[in-house]
């Protein structure tokens, strides 16, 4: 019985150790994969560093021939210039929008004033027609007065002729 108990314990222990070993193996496999991914990432970053190292050399040459004291100062100046450029672009966009709004307002104002001008032209045309009607009225009144005068003259002559005929008849 003791032998069976020891055998059972040994089997349990072996089972636990197998589980532990499998767990360690899976952990090791995961760590190897992670290591491989890190190596790939390291290689990519290394390649990037190699690729951009010419820019480091370029910046160092810029520092040598300029008023800058170190590369960080050049980078800081570049960042300031980018910030200023961004602000200028934003300001330009705002001015463009304001200009477009002003143009819309100007168009509206121009349309209103053109409508006013048209209204004044119509009023002026009506006044001119009224002036024409007044001058026509003077013409026709004069003509009417002439007709009345001629009628009066002819009536007077007719009266004179009637009187003469009446005198001759008597």
From TrEMBL:
This is CCD42 protein. Keywords: Coiled coil. It holds the Pfam family DUF4200. The keyword Signal does not apply. The gene is Ccdc42. Residues 21-48, 88-130 form a coiled coil. PANTHER family: COILED-COIL DOMAIN-CONTAINING PROTEIN 42, COILED-COIL DOMAIN-CONTAINING PROTEIN 42 LIKE-2-LIKE-RELATED. One of its GO terms (cellular component) is cytoskeleton. It comes from the Eukaryota. Residues 1-64 form the DUF4200 domain. The keyword Zinc does not apply. GO terms for biological process: spermatid development.
């Amino acid at each position: 019985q003791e032998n069976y108990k020891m055998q059972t314990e040994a089997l349990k222990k072996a089972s636990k150790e197998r589980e532990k070993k499998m767990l360690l193996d899976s952990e090791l496999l995961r760590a190897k994969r992670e290591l491989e991914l890190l190596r790939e990432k390291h290689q990519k970053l290394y390649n990037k560093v190699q690729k951009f190292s010419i820019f480091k050399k370029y910046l160092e040459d810029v520092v040598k021939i300029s008023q800058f004291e170190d590369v960080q100062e050049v980078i800081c100046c570049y960042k300031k210039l980018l910030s200023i450029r961004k602000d200028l672009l934003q300001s330009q966009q705002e001015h463009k929008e304001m200009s477009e709004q002003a143009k819309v307002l100007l168009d509206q104002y121009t349309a209103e004033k053109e409508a006013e001008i048209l209204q004044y032209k119509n009023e002026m045309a009506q006044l001119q027609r009224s002036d024409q009607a007044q001058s026509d009225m003077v013409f026709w009144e004069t003509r009417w007065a002439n007709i009345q005068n001629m009628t009066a003259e002819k009536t007077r002559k007719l009266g004179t002729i009637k009187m003469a005929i009446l005198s001759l008849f008597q």
